[in-house]
Amino acid sequence: MIMVDNGVTVPGRVSEDDRRARIAGLVSAARDGHPEAVSELVSELTPVLWQVARATGLGAADAEDVIQTVWMSLLSHLEGIRTPAALTAWLVITTRREAWRVKKADRKQSPADQEWLIAVPDPRPGSEESVITADEYRQLWAAFLTLPQRCQELLRIVAFVPRPDYDEVAATLHMPRGSVGPTRGRCLDKLRTALGPEEGIR
Amino acid sequence: MIADDAGLIGAIREVFESVDPMPADLPERIRFAIALRDLDAELARFASESDEAAIAVRGMEESRTITFDSDSLTIMIRIDGNADGTVRVDGWLAPAQAGRVEMRRVDNSIAVTADEAGRFAFLSVPRGTARLIVGLLGEGSNGRPNGEKSVITPALILLAAE
Asked: How many CA atoms are closer than 13 Å to the CA of A118, on its beta-carbon side?
């Protein structure tokens, strides 16, 4: 779901308010032990968790294991989770922590696991929905790869966490580890600088 | 043209959805793992590597038999295509025994009964990913009932004849 500048959703997609209401209902149903509710939450949020796990540089197979572990663990933590934002925050933070833990435990990641780093993205089919042109797309990718690793991770997570849920996640993501942590705004500024003043993406 | 933060973040999202998309079957595998969490199931494995390579089973042209082994049970299945594009699955349990055989799919499940000879059949199932869960009701080696002991197969991709 791509939010356009003024907060209006792309036509044909559910509005953010509807999404939150639906997820709130699913969270409550999941707490009451309805397995279909858990299934729907898995469909809804696993794509976000995939990006969070892969943003740490974790290999594909390990990322899948981490995400599965996190969902299993959520089932025993549902009692304390009341809102969609709290659910997203718990899942994202736990996935990120677990992904980093696994990555540190196994330093030797296969180069093939990072092949997306060198992939040149092609514009997706059905590009009427796309917010950027093919050229912008390639420029953005090239600029993104010049960012410090922590900015890459932060922006990748920011891009997938639903906007209203973001605040609950932000505090943890911005936590400095020994140095000044990157903030969303500072990383976006760096990206703009890397894109250059004359590029299509301002 | 992307003028503001939200637009730029949306563009980053598009790039990653294209460059490193989530494996399409990941949610299904997670749902499955969750569904099995409380089921005390024994995992059956493909009896041979050639079977494992053939998990995508196309009916009609290549009617074939696949064998799964677990500690307590061997499950053999044969898959044939029906004329209407669905798939027929015939199975045998060894050692021969009665039980309940469930074919669990992403969105539904169908259950049939295996007879005393261990035979069961799903006459017409749609194509797609499925697993078999065999619930055994027989007696254990000590003569006492096993209770609801279950054996589950890896995911099979059932393809209808084209």
From this structure: 5
Can you tell me the ipTM of this complex? 0.79
Query: Is B15 in contact with A188 (Cβ distance < 8 A)?
Result: no
| Residues with Cβ within 8 Å of residue A144, at least 6 apart in sequence | A152, A155, A191, A194, B12, B15
Angle (CA) A90 A80 A22, round 5°: 70
Determine, yes or no, domain membership for B77: yes
Report the percentage of chain A scoring pLDDT > 70.
71
B31 near A155, Cβ under 8 Å?
no
User: Domain for residue B67, yes or no?
Assistant: yes
Give the count of domains, chain B: 1
Dump pLDDT digits (tens) for B2-41.
668 888 999 999 999 988 999 998 998 898 888 777 566 7
Residue labelled with tokens 């390990």? A62
Interface residue B38 vs chain A (CB under 8 A): no
Domain assignment of residue B12, yes or no: no
Radius of gyration from C-alpha coordinates of chain A: 18
pTM: 0.66
CA distance A179 to chain B (A): 25
Q: Is B29 in the A-facing interface, judged by CB distances under 8 Å? A: yes
The helix or strand, by DSSP H or E, that contains position A164, with its residue range, turns out to be: none
Domain holding B28, by residue range, is 24-159
For residue B89, list its beta bridge partners. B79, B122
